[in-house]
Amino acid sequence: MTPNLNHIKIVLVDPSHAGNIGAVARAMKNMGLSSLTLVNPKQFPDQQAVARSAGAHDLLDTAVVVNSLDDAISDASLVIGTSTRARRLSWPALDPVNCANKAMSESCNGNVAIIFGNERVGLTNEQLDKCQFFVTIPVDPEFSSLNLAAAVQIITYELRKTYLGFKQADNSDDQASSLASQSEIQGFFKHLEQVLVAIDFLNPATPKKLMRRLYRLFHRAQLEEKEVNILRGILTSVEKVAGLNPQGARGKKREQK
Ligand code: SAH
């Protein structure tokens, strides 16, 4: 399961301001995305776009220009539309975090298209019908429309955060030593109890809840194999220093008394 930012494309439908296209390219490049598709841009290529891209002009150079939304999404297995309001109650709606999770999961195997609408009218119902999900950025309902590039920035920021989260989880999986098995943990608990009894910390006649509290403490720690070995090593040293017989410690101590 390797998520791939290159499998996610941003699609701008009928963008009317070339400057916005440049600002979108910049927002995308900041977040490590590179695939931009433009459906019927009013003016493109354009100097305004280059100026507003602030160095992300490579995304403008490689932007794909098409005549219809169908062409833009034909290779995508997941299509998510963005909308200022939850227009359709029956349609599956996502927030930006869930959108990022879905998109990054899908990017492991397929291509994802995230669709943004025209600055003035947004996406039409017909365009939204082509989306499996739509996502709304939860802004103040009194003033709910974001600038196109600002909306792209927020959606792509969430994508990046999720992507980094996936990668971090991958790395820590590689580095993690294995957790102790239940039989190792039960062996440690038995050993611990023997030693606590032997050093008179635990009175088996009135155990109260000591062992249960200790079980809870060590379960919470999610002990690794190596850590159980260290703890058992400590217990064995205690037994040695106290002159206890590791097997049947309390009996031996009693004999010595
Ligand atoms: N009057 C239009 C506003 C379009 S803003 C409308 O109400 O839809 C241009 C594009 O930016 C939108 O089509 C959408 O893709 C994106 N956008 C703006 N605000 C958004 C928000 N709050 N949530 C999700 N997308 C948003």
Task: Explain what you see.
- The protein is of the alpha/beta class.
- It folds into two domains: 167 residues, SPOUT methyltransferase, trefoil knot domain (Alpha/beta knot), CATH 3.40.1280.10; 74 residues, Helicase, Ruva Protein, domain 3 (Orthogonal Bundle), CATH 1.10.8.590.
- Helices cover 50% and strands 11% of the residues.
- The chain has eleven helices and seven strands.
- The chain has a seven-stranded parallel beta sheet with strand order 3-2-1-6-4-7-5.
- Helix 1 links the parallel strand 1 and strand 2.
- The longest helix is centred in the middle third of the chain and has 28 residues.
- It is elongated, with a radius of gyration of 30 Å.
- It starts with 7 loop residues before the first strand and ends with a helix.
- S-adenosyl-L-homocysteine binds next to helix 7.
